[in-house]
Write a structure and sequence with these properties.
Elements lengths: L2 E10 L5 E2 H8 L5 H8 L3 E2 L8 H16 L8 E5 L10 H8 L7 E5 L5 H15 L4 E9 L9 H4 L4 E11 L4 E8 L7 E2 L2 E4 L2 E4 L4 E2 L1 H23 L8 E4 L4 H10 L11 H4 L6 H11 L8 E8 L3 E8 L1
Parallel strand pairs: 4-5, 4-6, 13-14
Antiparallel strand pairs: 1-7, 2-3, 6-7, 8-15, 9-12, 10-11, 14-15
Helix pairs in contact: 3-4, 7-8
The protein binds acetyl coenzyme *A.
Amino acid sequence: MIHTRISGTGSYLPGEPVDNASLIAKHQIDSSDDWIVERTGIRQRHLAAAGVTSSDLALEASRRALDAAGRLPADVDLIIVATSTPDYVFPSAAALLQSKLGIINGAAAFDVQAVCSGFVYALNIAEKFIRSGSHKCALVVGAEVFSRILDWKERGTCVLFGDGAGAVVLEAADKPGLLASAFHADGSHHGILSVPGQVCGGVVTGDPFLRMDGQAVFKFAVKVLADVAHEVLAAAGMTADQVDWLIPHQANVRILQATAKRLHLPPEKCVVTVAEHGNTSAASIPLALDTAVRDGRIRRGQNLLLEGVGGGFTWGATLLEY
Ligand code: ACO
């Protein structure tokens, strides 16, 4: 039987961090560092310079993940980029990343659009490709430039998000690896979190900025993150106390704390990086994973529970032995 295993992780945050006070001053936002820290836990974020795209951020994160895995770009036969802020309408950020990595072996490349759950979706898709025997070495990336879709006049959203990328190399292996996965969607909730615009006839029609009902998103996120965690634990025949590290989508520290509490996990078992980079959507889970791998918290053989929730609504989780 073919299993899958993460052989390397990498991440990248562009430029210097922008703290809350600097962001407020630059965009004249009617807010305060105290409000943002108290309601969200966010202290700073990174913002990509003009012209820097999701595939540029993905490139840096991918190089680091490949180095960590001891792999060359030529070893990769599948590239999946989770993003809601791709460089272009098309081609995909994954195809552009393939080109920037200099991969000329015909590796399959495509994007996954599941907003903040995108990385969990992409990881699950890559796992299914590898377990089928069709592919052996996948680069799975979450990369976003959410700063491009923020309305700086809307204080309830513009202080929450940042830009960044995270990547893993997922390979065929003799032993697990990924233990259990689940991913879901319910499109009837599309109205509480969306960017309801499109390009048509050379102009943007509708609204090109992120719009959100924060309280509705908060309640929905906490519920489904707990539900899907229980679902994958049951599928793997495991209990929450066997989880060494919970690595949720980094949206808001209060959502992370509420999720850990519902799973009866002590807060110190939850990897929290949102203070350093804000909500980076599909990039946030691999960013948090890479941070905790590189600072030595996550070690080989430990059980990790990765889970995300985002616009759509979409949600999903993966339980794995690192
Ligand atoms: N600074 C100061 N005041 C603000 C700000 C701000 N940046 N934003 C909103 N306020 C004000 C509101 O206008 C409101 O004022 P009022 O009482 O005079 O009307 C007051 O603060 C309270 O607003 P609420 O929306 O009730 O504040 P809440 O405690 O719910 O916090 C927040 C808002 C942080 C958005 C919260 O609802 C939240 O985190 N929701 C989850 C959203 C999220 O994380 N989305 C990420 C995308 S989805 C995902 O990743 C899962």
